[in-house]
Structure of Exosortase F system-associated protein:
Amino acid sequence: MRQSVRTYILVIILFLAFITIRAFQDTLFYDPFIAYFKSNFLSKEFPDFNTIKLIASLLFRYVLNAMISLAILYLLFRTKGIVKVSTGIFIVAFLVLCPIYFTLLYLNDVGEYMLLFYIRRFLIHPVFILILIPAFYYQKKKQKVV
């Protein structure tokens, strides 16, 4: 019982780390699109941005969120296999979504930003943890039945 209480406290602390990252995103990361997407962006031009700084900042934020997510998954499931599979998912997702994101940044017309908006969400927010926890929980329950 003591182990599970400690595990849940650590998981809560890690979720608080996500909240902290979000709270300090303006100072931690270079992202001129934070303010842009908070506004009425469908009728506005993109703000000027530095591509190299944006890629570096996006990568840093993605890796931070991925590392916290992997720690949460390990604490909840205590299986290195789940961490390995999840690491692969995070890497493939970044390698697929990042080029799409930057392609859309350079090719989209004014008002056609919704796909860009949602791809950006997957890159800067820990959305995958919300998908992976129930998926691995379901898999674990299904294996116990068989």
In short: Helices lie at 2-23, 25-28, 33-38, 51-77, 80-107, 114-124, 127-145. The radius of gyration is 18 Å. The longest helix spans residues 80-107.
